[in-house]
């Protein structure tokens, strides 16, 4: 009979300096097994702490159900680095321009970013799986004539939807998953905009300088190098300028960047991530090279709810919002106590609960807003409407409702569409925007 292949349950263990894997891993295994065996189901992304010195957090990175063998745990231990990012700047007269940022991974600064980004289920994980497969293919040396894998991912979509954050989070996650393969990991963030927007006569030199530094990092085969090309549409912008008789320097810069990116891709230890705001005008030469193109849209209703829930849980944990504790919860699948998850809040038979009803109202009013806007709402609510250090959840949610109404109204005024006040909840449009 064929042997049944048990899928591994991935467990990531974030540590601080001082953690000794040889001596302490057994203790970690014991504690994690205890926690994992206790529960029938555990949602992917669940985090918890264990009483082992230098262990900061344990994260379950696989959806676990009651039928899964708990023996198949696969551990990834990683030590978070405290080193701050170093900005690379160039001077032109008195002006100083930042062209890149260099960061060592896994970084303390990026810790928690992956979990904080909320998209439709499966999106983040398919991106990470793409990154992992890409690196595996490169490491194993697949025949490039037979299989194309450029190790280049492009994320595009409206402003404030978390594209840049997501790229950084993927770089951090990839580093964690590949800790056994590489001794060091770097994130080089290129600000394309500053490369292309000014001083065209200098741009060629800037590009050379920047890429020679990245190439130097790549020479070390024990280093993983993630390159983030932010706002890549600047490249397309530069090409547009060519047609309108702008300096011919721009064409040279565009070509230099594309050639340099091709050079980078010759190294098996590079992974390139790019972001763009402008879906329609991404340079085709660049687009051709990307083997993973993902649209990132505004959060769906479930994502909005979870973004607000995570913010409120945080405010409750630090005492700015009081804990409530009467949500009539029937399930206890989630490890987060307090405000229930979206599915529970929307259960047809749920007992009436004013707090949850207002939260769901705020969520409805937030349709079509970017993640960036949503993350500001709790702060605006506190600053503009709460006006005291601590308040009840009910009052805080009422303040959030006022805040989102204000934001919507301000946006409408900005767009000059209307000067009227915000419509009532009945007029709130149903959700139609989804992350694809
Ligand atoms: N889906 C989301 N879930 C949680 N947080 C989000 C989401 N989308 C955006 N954010 C938050 O919004 C902020 C802005 O994100 P970021 O700068 O990465 O967006 P962006 O898409 O790169 O924007 P831009 O196109 O303007 O460069 C971050 O603090 C991020 O955490
Ligand atoms: Mg961005």
TrEMBL record:
Region: Disordered; residue ranges are 415-436
Q: Which PANTHER family match?
A: PACHYTENE CHECKPOINT PROTEIN 2, PACHYTENE CHECKPOINT PROTEIN 2 HOMOLOG
Swiss-Prot/TrEMBL GO biological process terms: meiotic recombination checkpoint signaling; reciprocal meiotic recombination
An example GO CC term for this entry is: chromosome
**UniProt cross-references to InterPro entries, sorted A to Z:** AAA+_ATPase, ATPase_AAA_core, ATPase_AAA_CS, ClpA/B, P-loop_NTPase, Pch2-like, Pch2_C
| Key words of the record | ATP-binding, Meiosis, Nucleotide-binding
Q: Which organism is it from?
A: Anopheles maculatus
Point out the signal peptide segment.
Answer: none
* Highest taxon above the source species: Eukaryota
- One of the record's GO molecular function terms: ATP binding
Describe the family membership recorded for this protein in Swiss-Prot or TrEMBL.
Answer: Belongs to the AAA ATPase family. PCH2 subfamily.
**Alphabetical list of SMART domains matching this protein:** AAA
Q: What is this protein called?
A: AAA+ ATPase domain-containing protein
**Pfam families, per this entry?**
AAA, AAA_lid_TRIP13_C
| Ranges where the AAA+ ATPase domain occurs | 149-300
